[in-house]
Design a protein that fits this description.
Blueprint: E1 3-7, E2 15-25, E3 38-43, E4 50-52, E5 57-60, E6 66-74, E7 81-86
Antiparallel strand pairs: 1-2, 2-6, 3-4, 3-7, 5-6
């Protein structure tokens, strides 16, 4: 299954930050409240060290939807890579 991820944080700095993630199926369908099915990783801009998010949380909003949040720690400045995959999709 192919997903589209929108990281919606505007105030990320060095250190630990809570990152909101809007996750949808590539066709536009929502992928709501399915934390157990997802794996989120992030990688620094200068190394191949991959960090696994261990606190992915679904936060429902009162109107029709919600967003996922995760805590990530950034120890250097740069463009970090965030990847989200469905655990059932082996090899992705």
């Amino acid at each position: 299954m192919q997903l589209v991820v929108f990281a919606a944080a505007s105030d990320v700095a060095l250190g630990t930050a809570r990152i909101p993630l809007n996750i949808q199926v590539i066709g536009g369908a929502r992928f709501d409240d399915r934390v157990e099915e997802l794996e989120v990783t992030y990688t620094s801009p200068t190394s191949n060290e991959t960090h696994v998010v261990d606190d992915l949380t679904w936060r429902a909003w009162p109107v029709r939807s919600g967003t996922y949040t995760s805590t990530m720690t950034f120890d250097e400045v740069g463009l970090w890579s965030i990847k989200v995959r469905v655990k059932a999709d082996e090899g992705s």
